[in-house]
Each structure stands twice: as structure tokens, then as C-alpha cells.
């Protein structure tokens, strides 16, 4: 299988190198891939300042091949590059001939300019999805997924999600075991499915500036499947239990207990989405049995977390 990367000026290196590493690793493991890099000019300067050399002649791609467009640095899609009509026509012709086209992050805009998003589900980086929907009203932009495949048009969210997209394509061609081998060789922690959220709880609740809360979150992130005491979390944060609880709620909108539950629930959903039973997922993330997991999955998390009892004299477990 030939993979042709279309290099756009100011492209993000990880948008390119992440998928390229996946296909290169697959090739090393015995799943043959040939990687080619082309552009409208020979020299391309990446967003990170690395200069790349590309082919200017179209290398040719058959129905079994993939053409991928990495994203680039630009605060808006409107201010991004405008490939020539010839390049856009080649994308359209490749897809019409039965080939697959894909994009990472803002690369979806190139597919939109070629008309390949019309009538299809697609996605992009969460900062750009509203603009993508406005620019291409005939597209159906998915708001919070890692990647989308629709009619041999595959689009992914920002930056690192290109790795997930490429692993998905390897799995489609060679089976999930092959993709798992590639992910293991690359030391990829978890191969995400396309329907998973772009924004995990570990990122979503890290926008605050409280060092004590960050330190407590580090402890919970690393040990969320284990019983944890508020005393130990407060010690990790260098503050009292009452101060940590107050700052945690102010910073994240939830108590340490609720934060741990959220991490457990997200990880359990990931495992279930990859074929685990509810019972197996519950035990893997630290629940004593599946009942609590079923309750958490069946109800909507409260907008305002419960307040701890100020009369408590013991150190409760951050556990369920």
C-alpha cells in the first residue's frame, strides 16, 4: 500500500510524523507500506521550523492507496493555505477511482476545498470545528470525536489524533491484532476508537493554576484504580484536607472523589468500547463489582458536585 502525504506550508510535524511512524512501523513488522511525500514546491518549512524536501511530481496512487493531508499552523482555516486546482483535482480523481483520502487537524480544510466533505461526516481540531462547519455547510461536522470515516474520506481531530487515525487504517487493512502490534511497538498507551471524546477528563480539568490541586490530580491520575485517602492527597498537595477539598472544587468543579470516579468511568468506557464486558471493565478500573459502574453509566453526572461534610473528623477514602 502506498501512502502519499501532501505537505502544506507550515504543517505541524506531529500531524505528519505520527501517521508516518505508524505506517513505517507497520512496514517494519511485515505489513508492506511505501511512504511518499509530495507538495507544490520542493522545500516546505514546517510550523516548528524544520525544513522538508518533497516531490513535486505526483507519485501516482491507485485505488488501494491512501492520500493523507496533515494539518498546519493557523489560528483560522480562512487564513490557511490554498492549494492549486491541479492538486485538488488529483485528490478528487484519486477518491473517484476508489482510493482513500484522509486528513489530520486543519488538513480537513483541503478536503473541503476539493468538495470531498460534502454530504459526509467529518471532524477536525476542537478549536476549528465550528469554522469548518460554517465554511462547508454541506458537511456534517462531528463535534467531539477522535476521527470519522465516511465513504473512504477519513478525518481526524488535532495533532496526536493522526496516530489514532493511522492505527485505525492499519486495523481496517490488516486486522486489529496488527494495529495492536504497531501501537505496542510505538509505546502508544491506548488505541482510541473514533467515537471517543477529543477531550479527556485528565485534560479537561487542568486549566486552573492551583499547584496543590495539580499535585493531587497527578496522584489520582496515576492511581485512579486504587483506594486513595484524602489525607494522602492533601499531603501530596502540601495543604490540609479541608483546603485541598475547597481548592479542588473551585478549580475543577468537582470533589476529589468525583474526579476519581470520572477517570474510572472514562477508562471503563474505553475498555467496553474495545470489547470488554461491564464486569471486566469495572474490576480493571478499581470498582469492587459492576453495580457502581452501571449506576455511573446510567445517570448523568450532577452539574454541581456534593460538598464534603465539614464535621467529619476521619479521613474518608477517595474510593467507591
What's the arrangement of secondary structure elements?
Blueprint: E1 2-6, H1 13-28, E2 34-38, E3 43-45, E4 51-53, E5 66-69, H2 85-96, E6 100-104, H3 108-113, E7 121-122, H4 129-135, E8 140-141, E9 147-150, E10 153-156, H5 161-174, H6 176-185, H7 201-204, H8 211-223, H9 230-237, H10 241-252, H11 256-273, H12 278-284, H13 290-298
Helix pairs in contact: 1-5, 5-6, 8-9, 8-11, 9-10, 11-12, 12-13
Question: If you had to describe this structure to a student in words, what would you say it looks like?
Answer:
The protein is elongated and about 65 Å long. 41% of the residues are buried. With 320 residues, the protein is α/β, with parallel strands linked by helices. It has helices at 13-28, 85-96, 108-113, 129-135, 161-174, 176-185, 201-204, 211-223, 230-237, 241-252, 256-273, 278-284, 290-298, and strands at 2-6, 34-38, 43-45, 51-53, 66-69, 100-104, 121-122, 140-141, 147-150, 153-156. The protein is built from 13 helices and ten strands. The protein has a six-stranded mixed β-sheet with strand order 2-1-5-6-10-9. A two-stranded antiparallel sheet has the order 3-4. The protein has a two-stranded parallel ribbon with strand order 7-8. It starts with a strand and ends in a 22-residue tail after the last helix. Residues 300-320 have low confidence and may be disordered. It folds into two domains: 2-185, 3-Layer(aba) Sandwich (Rossmann fold), CATH 3.40.50.880; 201-298, Homeodomain-like (Arc Repressor Mutant, subunit A), CATH 1.10.10.60. Keywords: Transcription, Transcription regulation.
